[in-house]
Write a structure and sequence with these properties.
CATH class of the largest domain: Alpha Beta
Structural class: alpha/beta
CATH topology of the largest domain: Rossmann fold
Distance between the termini: 13 Å
Radius of gyration: 19 Å
Oligomer: single chain
Strand content: 15-25%
Strand order of the largest sheet: 2-1-3-4
Helix content: 40-55%
Length: 300
Amino acid sequence: MTTGVLLMAHGTPSTTAEIAPFYTRIRRGRPPSPEQLAELESRYAAIGGVSPLTVRTAAQVDAVRAALEERSPGRFVVSFGAKHTEPLIEESAALLGRADLERVIGLVLTPHGSTMGSQEYLERAAAAIGPTPFVAVGPWYAEASLVALLAARVQEALADTTGRATVIFTAHSLPERVVEEGDTYPDQLAESARLVAEAAGLDDYVVAWQSAGRTPDPWLGPDVRDVVRALAADDLADAVVICPIGFVSDHLEVLYDLDIEVADVAASLGLGYRRTTSLNDNPAFIATLADVIIAADGAG
């Protein structure tokens, strides 16, 4: 029998014409105001017109497919579904559910889990898959090979700085109410950062949040920009190294929120700025994903 694999990610506009409908979708059907749309379009323009996430994710999916085929020829059928763009999670899950597979493994391309993040993706897939057994892969941030790869990225970035450098691990913020309801996302991030920091031989580091939504609700903090300002105010660093540990590829939240916004804050304060290289379709990262999938197949 054959095992299906459904890789899932957020999705992003592939062309500038798709930005407006994409923004409406992530706002749950509420069109953005002209001002809101113009601001988002300006952010995409600042990183080249559109996010590279679509291309990066496609490369990851293709690389995982090739890696699994090399290690277990004919065993896996790999598909992809996105939260906000075509093909949607439900569409891809339903196709796999009709494909006479032994099981379908669902893996979200983010290492940490939350009720507003990967758990929602997995639930949507499970609901659409039909009677085919569905194996949901939980948070995989503690995979030893991933920790080693991120630690090497941190060491490389540190080697490219001068003076006293502070490493800041970041992930996408969530509304505080999610944590109040029992979400372990912040605990996962803290543990993830600790593992990578230890592997990288860091004596000190900071955990911060980024890319909070613009809603009336308070979001998880501290914001990474405020952390950079505090480091400068207290004369604790000459440079910052940002490791966006919650993301696995280049996209708007990395290329704009970090490489433009945070970099500008650091420069205005006289601090150096470096960011760890994104994982994208790095062969070692793809091997990690293949390991996780094969382990889930055996467990299923």
